[in-house]
Design brief:
Blueprint lengths: L1 E2 L3 E5 L7 H12 L2 E2 L2 E5 H11 L5 H8 L9 H7 L5 H12 L4 H6 L3 E8 L5 E4 L1 H4 L3 H8 L9 E3 L2 E4 L9 H6 L4 E5 L14 H7 L4 H8 L1 H17 L3 E4 L14 H36 L1
Parallel strand pairs: 1-3, 2-4, 2-9, 4-5, 9-10
Antiparallel strand pairs: 5-6, 5-8, 7-8
Helix pairs in contact: 1-2, 1-3, 1-13, 2-8, 3-13
């Protein structure tokens, strides 16, 4: 096992673009790479769950084999339940029956796993670690993946929660505040990407009139995202961050259903991880030397 000691793993969301992260994590699984700390939001957190239960190939089955299934993602779901993604199907039937989740292995894993969500009332990021969610990991993952307009809010521990990517799309600063100054960050956008302001705030205000915090978080989301990317660039220059991101232009959107496109992005993630591995090991070795000199 290759343990990246004192190094965190930070995972961006992105809906179906998360198959890229699934490919990266599959490479990590196959090469027995582990971390003491993993934090993710939305699809990033969901992929991390199967990585931490050490179920090789599971993310690929869940996200690609079922992508064309109307129970997973379809207009039928939306007209029937007001949600494009079939959240009951994804977070109940799949892990319980179709592609069983290994809860025992997940709970045996000593890696701290933090999942980011957004509080609808305050608009603030709310993070859940193992101690906070206990046996309710799927509830927290569901909350972190519940996008406004296309999924219902999740009520959990006296909070009303939605997608973690709204308030903290790339939770690098949370990883640092939890004590991990060195982090590997997996992104699901190309290097040149920057988010633009939303033009649909009036719909948000109409849909969620009581959630003023959520409204503000959605309005400032593009700024937080772009500022985080700039912060990551500085951290990379200082040697504190190692970034893995798509190296070729994306052909997959947040709600992509084409299995061929999804598998191509999954393979790209796997191949990008393989190409980056030697540089990653060198980066880790340099960090280990710095750490030993400080002790």
């Amino acid at each position: 096992m290759t343990l990246f000691e004192q190094t965190g793993l930070v995972l961006e969301g992105g809906g179906m673009r998360g198959v890229y992260t699934a490919g990266v994590l599959e490479y990590f699984l196959e090469h027995d790479i582990s971390f003491p700390y993993v934090i993710g939001v939305s699809a990033g957190a969901c992929n991390a769950a199967s990585y931490l239960s050490r179920q090789k190939g599971r993310n690929k089955r869940v996200t690609i084999e079922y992508a064309a299934d109307p129970r997973y993602l379809s207009w039928k779901n939306y007209f029937k339940n007001k949600q494009f993604f079939g959240m009951d199907f994804i977070f109940d039937e799949i892990p319980s029956k179709l592609v069983p989740y290994n809860y025992d292995e997940f709970h045996r894993n000593s890696t701290e796993f933090v999942v980011g969500t957004t509080d609808c009332l305050t608009g603030e990021p709310i993070y859940f670690n193992r101690k906070k969610y206990g046996q309710d990991i799927l509830t927290v993952l569901r909350a972190s993946s519940s996008l406004p307009f296309i999924a219902p809010e999740i009520h959990f521990q006296e909070r009303i929660l939605l997608d973690g990517g709204i308030s903290d799309p790339i939770p690098i600063k949370k990883a640092q505040s939890d004590g991990y100054q060195k982090n590997i960050v997996i992104l699901t956008r190309n290097e040149e990407y920057r988010k633009k302001p939303s033009k649909f705030h009036f719909l948000l205000n109409r849909k969620y009139p009581a959630y003023t915090g959520l409204q503000q978080a959605m309005k400032s989301r593009y700024q937080i995202y772009n500022e985080t990317l700039s912060f990551l660039d500085r951290e990379k220059e200082d040697g504190n961050v190692f970034i893995i991101r798509p190296t070729t232009p994306l052909k997959v959107g947040r709600m992509e259903r084409d299995p061929k496109k999804l598998e191509a992005l999954y393979n790209q993630g796997y191949e990008d991880a393989a190409r980056a591995f030697n540089a990653l090991k060198k980066w880790q070795e340099e960090n280990s030397v710095q750490l030993s000199e400080q002790m």
